[in-house]
Amino acid sequence: MAVKILSVDDEMDLELLLTQYFRRQIRKGEYEFTFAHNGLEALTMLLNHQDFDIILSDINMPEMDGLTLLTKINEMRNPALKCIMVSAYGDMGNIRQAMNNGAFDFATKPIDLDDLSLTIEKAIKQIKYIREMQAEHTQLESIKGDLAIAREIQLAILPRIFPPFPENEDQLDIAAQMTAAKDVGGDFYDFFRIDDDRIGFVIADVSGKGIPAAIFMAVSRTLIRATGIRGGSPAECMRYVNELLAKESVNCMFVTVFYGIYNIQTGEITYCNAGHNPPYLLKHDSCVEALPMSKDPMVGAVEGLSYHEQKIQLEKGDALFMFTDGVTEAMNVSLEEFGEQRMEQTLQQADGKSGQEVIDAVTGEVKAFVEEAEQSDDITMLVLKRKA
After folding, report:
1. N- to C-terminal Cα separation, the chain
2. pLDDT for 226-266, tens place per residue?
C-alpha cells in the first residue's frame, strides 16, 4: 500500500516541488501526497481520513500554525502517525519546541529534498515497526481472550459440585482443588461412579505447562474416565490408556496418574500409581503414612507397558490425601521448596477435619511459605475420606 503523506504549507510552490521530486515513487504507487494550506484545513482532513502515515507541516502558517496542529495530532494518540516539521533555518526556537512536543524530525527551508527523502524513509521504517508491534499486541490480546475462555472450559470439565455424590454423603467425603500456574494447566482430578458400591477417582500431572499440557490433560482425563467407568481394574485401565496416549503422543509428552477405585461399603481402595507422587494415608488417630513409592511408569510415554495395583483399607475417619508436585515443589523468593516435611506437619493436624478443610490448611501453609514468589507449577489436591 502507498505511504500516505499530508503536506501542510501555505506556500503553493511546495506542492509542485514535492510532486516533481517524488514523481517516480508516486507513479509506482509507493507514495501518495495530499496537500493542505494551513493547519485548520489539515486537521479537517485528518479527522475525515484517518489513514495518513506522515504529516509534513510548516510551522508558520495562517489560521492554525504547525505547533498547534502538532498538539491536535498528539491528542489523536496514534503512535504510527509521524510528523516532520518545516521552518526557516533561523527559527530554531520553534523547531526545538516542536521536537520537544513529539515531532518525529524536522527540515529547514529552503528544503533539501534529498535529505527530506531520507527523513521520510526513516519515518516509514518507524511506522512499519510500530504497526508490526500494534498487530502483535492485537494478536496477543486475542490470544489472551482465547486463554481466558480455555481456562473456563478446562475448569468446567473438572468436577466442581461438592459433595459429588450426595446420596452417599453420610458415608464418603470428597474434596478437590486445582490451581493452574498459568492461564491453563496440565494437572487434573476426577471422580465418577462405576456402580452402586464403587467410585473411581484420579489425580494426574501432565508433563510441561501451558496450552500443550492443557490439551494433553483434556485428552488424558477423557480417556481415563471413559475407560474407568467401564469398571475394569486400575492396572488394566492404565495399560489401556497408556497404549492410546503413547500412539498419539507429541514431543514425548506423558502424564503421571494415581487412579483408584473406592468401595463405599467396605472402605477398600484398589489403586494403580503410574509414576505419581505417593499419596498420604491420614489415619483417624492422627498418624500420617505415605503409600509406597510407585514402581510403575508414567502413562503415554512408551507403548507396551504393564501396570500393577495394590490395595489399602480405609477405616472410619481415615482419609487419603493426594497431590501433585506443585505442592511440595512450591518455592519462596529464596528458591527454597515447601517440601514434604512441611506438608506432613500440616497433615498431622488433619484429624477431625473435612476433606476441604485439609486442602484449605495445606493451601494456607503453602501461601504463607511462598509469600510473594510467583507460582511455578500447577497445584492440585484431592482428598477422599471415609465417614462411615
Report:
1. 75
2. 999 999 999 999 999 999 999 877 778 899 999 999 999 99
